Amino acid sequence: MSILRSEQQxxxxxxxxxxxxxxxxxxxxxxxxxxxxxxxxxxxxxSEREPLxxxxxxxxxxxxxxxxxxxxxxxxxxxxxxxxxxWFTADQTRDVxxxxxxxxxxxxxxxxxxxxxTPDKTYQALHQRFVTQVxxxxxxxxxxxxx
Length: 147
Hints:
Elements (H helix, E strand, L loop, with lengths): L6 H26 L3 H27 L9 H16 L4 H22 L7 H26 L1
Helix pairs in contact: 1-2, 1-3, 1-4, 1-5, 2-5, 3-4, 4-5
Pfam family, one: DUF2383
Organism: marine sediment metagenome
Protein name: DUF2383 domain-containing protein
């Protein structure tokens, strides 16, 4: 394992971090949202992303690198802010769904910006898979938000 990462390794690490953070946030939201159907929706989205995270971790290992865990302190702070915001709203479930929708929109923007980060075909395939998952989750969340 080299101290310096290649362009491919950096791109894969960023993608892995984004996927893993999104899984962590969905799992956290599922734990505190009061509506059981919404909690199940969040758990399902997280579960759908876990195979992608596992595949990314393996691809990173195949490049001679190790997958880097997301910043736990940053995640804990973000999750605390999400919970506080949700606790002080009239409709907690609607607010948490809205938060997840905003997070998906931010993910979509980051993914659009990083699309051509590396021409590596493996990265491109995994990137597109995550883009599709974000699009599907956004659509599902929009439907839940309108209900």
